[in-house]
């Protein structure tokens, strides 16, 4: 970059949540003195989906592109210069740092950072250095947003869930007795590392031995206008004890340990990522009997009601206690860059 040895965006920490202060500094390191018209930075958050599908007509085959975008915010700030002035600022050789503070929107809640096959939710900052008669120098640096989901907050995530279904087996035009499945979980919210107890009550009135299984599936749905595209992925699976023919009072508990997976994606209208437990009974020479138990994977684990929720940073092994991340004291601060005075940066 010639006289510009270093041009970088450095965050005080990599991960943030709704309403928090994203802070850091723009670093400009020079080998020689330069003139600068403006240093512009902007922050942006958006979701984007795109996929293609082939369509065959009577005389031709064509590919159609489906795409959709949602912007969550866009904020701009000029540490050096103004939009309307051609005045220049002289920066001497050496290292210059320009601190910034950005308040993320608190409402509506921001979805967590996400990257999938056909779409993503992304947050980043861009810095542009404008110099007279020179091509602008531009850098882009992402940061991560995590939507905090407290699985022990009062509400539906603490409620048990039970689903029942049955299937009658036919053989040689004669109906056998039904297989009845009643699957239960004690709550709907969990975090990675926890073990889910899946209770299955099976009444096997048939003449065949059946085998129960429990599995966690992740399903991603991408939306583009009136179209949608789904992808499903097996997260983990376990098999329970077989239920013999004519056994009508089988009760089994299957333990599903949740691996390290991203939390349920909430608050995004064009991308949904959900988790569910599928409890199935495999029946020889017949379609499986399957029930679906939707669950939410959160970020803050269960805690006693008498105590406050565990600190998010400590829960995930990150200690940022030395970083001042409090918002300014006073009236509620609007989302965007916080500018008290003209930021001239500092030189070292």
Care to describe what's here?
- The chain is 1% helix and 55% strand.
- The strands form six sheets. Strands 1, 3, 8, 22 and 23 form a five-stranded antiparallel sheet that branches.
- The protein has one helix at 312-315, and strands at 4-11, 15-16, 21-30, 34-36, 38-56, 61-80, 89-91, 94-103, 114-115, 119-130, 137-142, 144-145, 161-171, 174-185, 189-190, 195-204, 211-224, 227-239, 250-257, 271-282, 289-297, 336-337, 346-347.
- With 348 residues, the chain is mainly β.
- The model is unreliable at 306-326 (pLDDT under 50).
Helix and strand arrangement:
Blueprint: E1 4-11, E2 15-16, E3 21-30, E4 34-36, E5 38-56, E6 61-80, E7 89-91, E8 94-103, E9 114-115, E10 119-130, E11 137-142, E12 144-145, E13 161-171, E14 174-185, E15 189-190, E16 195-204, E17 211-224, E18 227-239, E19 250-257, E20 271-282, E21 289-297, H1 312-315, E22 336-337, E23 346-347
Parallel strand pairs: 2-12, 15-21
Antiparallel strand pairs: 1-3, 3-8, 4-7, 5-6, 5-10, 8-22, 8-23, 9-10, 10-11, 13-14, 14-16, 16-19, 17-18, 17-20, 20-21
């Amino acid at each position: 970059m010639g006289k510009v040895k270093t041009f970088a965006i450095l965050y005080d920490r990599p991960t943030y949540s709704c309403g928090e202060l994203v802070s850091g500094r723009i670093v400009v390191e020079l080998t020689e003195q330069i003139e600068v018209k403006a240093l512009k930075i902007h922050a942006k958050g958006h979701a984007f989906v795109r996929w293609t599908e082939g369509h065959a007509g009577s005389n031709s085959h064509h590919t159609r592109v489906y795409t959709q975008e949602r912007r969550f915010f866009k904020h701009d700030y000029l540490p050096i210069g103004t939009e309307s002035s051609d005045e220049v600022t002289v920066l001497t050789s050496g290292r210059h740092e320009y601190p910034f503070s950005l308040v993320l929107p608190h409402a509506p809640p921001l979805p967590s950072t996400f990257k999938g096959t056909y779409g993503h939710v992304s947050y980043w900052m861009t810095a542009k250095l404008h110099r007279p008669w020179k091509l602008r120098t531009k850098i882009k640096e992402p940061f991560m947003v995590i939507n905090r989901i407290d699985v022990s907050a009062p509400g539906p995530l603490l409620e048990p869930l039970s689903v029942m279904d049955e299937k009658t087996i036919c053989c040689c035009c004669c109906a056998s007795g039904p297989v009845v499945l009643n699957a239960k979980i004690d709550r709907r919210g969990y975090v990675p590392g926890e073990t889910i107890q899946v209770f299955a009550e099976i009444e096997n009135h048939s003449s065949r031995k059946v085998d129960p299984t429990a599995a966690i599936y992740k399903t991603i749905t991408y939306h583009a206008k009136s179209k949608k595209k789904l992808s499903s992925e097996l997260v983990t699976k376990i098999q329970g004890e077989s239920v013999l023919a004519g056994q009508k009072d089988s009760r089994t508990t299957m333990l599903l340990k949740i691996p390290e997976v991203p939390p349920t994606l909430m608050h995004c209208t064009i991308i949904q990522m959900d988790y569910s437990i599928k409890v199935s009974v495999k029946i020889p020479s017949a379609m499986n009997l399957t029930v679906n138990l939707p669950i939410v994977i959160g970020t803050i684990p269960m805690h006693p009601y008498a105590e406050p929720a565990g600190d998010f940073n400590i829960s995930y092994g990150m200690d940022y206690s030395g970083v001042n991340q409090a918002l300014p004291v006073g009236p509620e601060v609007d989302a965007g860059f916080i500018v008290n005075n003209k930021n001239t940066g500092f030189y070292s």
